[in-house]
Specification:
Elements: H1 13-34, E1 42-46, H2 52-61, E2 66-71, E3 85-89, E4 102-108, H3 111-114, H4 119-123, E5 126-138, E6 143-145, H5 149-164, H6 171-181, E7 185-192, E8 195-197, H7 204-219, H8 225-236, E9 241-243, E10 246-253
Parallel strand pairs: 1-2, 1-4, 2-3, 4-5
Antiparallel strand pairs: 5-10, 6-9, 7-10, 8-9
C-alpha cells in the first residue's frame, strides 16, 4: 500500500483540489449520470476530497437517496453532512466499506496513491448488480508544447518523489484487468485528456501541486528551488500547451 502524496492540511489544499474539480468534474458527473445515478440511488464516494462530487451526488440522488462520503481527512466534507449526505472518517486501505449497501461506489484519483490492493475493500460496498467506478491517472501522455526540457526535468522529479511514496503513475492502464480479476462483469474503460493553456486558471492544479511538494523536492535533492520557481513562472505565463495525464475511468458491475 502507498500513502497519499499530498499534505491535506496544507494551507492551499482546498484550492489545489478545486483545480482537480475544474479539470475533471464535468466528465465524472456525465459518467455517473450515464451509469444510472439518480433519484433514490445509494452511492459511496471514497476519498471524497474537497466534496464537489459529494455535492453533485446529493442533488442527484435527492431526498430518497443516500451519499456516503468517506475520507481520512474530513475538514472539507463536514460542512456537507446532513440530509442525504453521511460523512465518515474511513481508511479504505484498512477497513472495507459497509457490506453490499451501495448501488454505486466511486473513487477518483485515490487508488493510484494507496494501491490496487484497496479495490477489494471498495468492492465490498457494492450490492449485487451494483457498479464500481474507479478513475485514476496514467501519466504516459504528459508533455508540453513547445518542448521544455527544464520543465520536463521538474515533472520527472515530481513523479519520482511520488513513486517513492508508493504512487503508481501507470495505474490507469491497469484498471480494466484489475476490475475483471475481481469478478466484475461488463468492464469498460474510457480515457479523458485535457489540453491546458499556460497562463489560465486550468493550470492551478499543476502549479499548486508543485508548490505543495517544493520543500520535499528540494530537501530530497530531486530538484533545486530555482528550477521549481522557473517552472511555476512558466505555468503562469501564456504561450505553452500542456497535455494532462490521461484520466482513465473504469467501471464494472458486480454479478447479481
Amino acid at each position: 500500500m502507498g500513502t497519499y502524496t499530498y499534505d491535506q492540511a496544507w494551507r492551499d489544499e482546498r484550492e489545489r483540489l478545486a483545480g482537480i474539480e475544474r479539470l475533471w468534474d464535468e466528465g465524472t458527473f456525465a459518467l455517473l449520470e450515464r451509469l444510472g445515478v439518480g433519484p433514490g440511488s445509494s452511492v459511496a464516494e471514497v476519498g471524497a476530497g474537497g466534496g464537489s462530487v459529494v455535492e453533485w451526488l446529493s442533488g442527484r440522488v435527492g431526498e430518497t437517496g443516500r451519499v456516503f462520503a468517506a475520507d481520512v481527512y474530513l475538514k472539507f466534507l463536514e460542512p456537507l453532512a446532513g440530509g442525504s449526505v453521511e460523512v465518515a472518517e474511513h481508511d479504505i486501505t484498512a477497513v472495507p466499506l459497509p457490506g453490499g449497501e451501495f448501488d454505486v461506489v466511486h473513487a477518483r484519483l485515490l487508488i493510484e496513491h494507496i494501491g490496487l490492493g484497496a479495490l477489494g475493500n471498495l468492492l465490498a460496498g457494492v450490492r449485487p448488480g451494483g457498479v464500481l467506478v474507479i478513475e485514476d491517472y496514467d501519466f504516459t501522455s504528459v508533455c508540453t508544447y513547445p518542448p521544455d526540457a527544464d520543465g520536463e526535468r521538474v515533472t520527472d522529479a515530481v513523479l519520482d518523489l511520488m513513486a517513492s511514496m508508493g504512487h503508481d503513475g501507470e495505474c490507469g492502464r491497469k484498471l480494466p484487468s484489475e476490475l475483471e480479476a475481481l469478478g466484475l462483469e461488463g468492464v469498460q474503460a474510457e480515457g479523458r485528456v485535457r489540453l491546458i493553456r499556460s497562463g489560465t486558471p486550468d493550470t492551478a492544479f499543476f502549479s499548486l501541486s508543485l508548490e505543495s511538494l517544493c520543500e520535499a523536492l528540494v530537501s530530497s535533492g530531486r530538484a533545486r528551488e530555482e528550477e521549481i520557481r522557473e517552472r511555476l513562472a512558466d505555468l503562469a505565463q501564456p504561450g505553452r500547451t500542456l497535455l494532462s495525464p490521461i484520466l482513465v475511468a473504469c467501471h464494472g458491475r458486480r454479478p447479481s
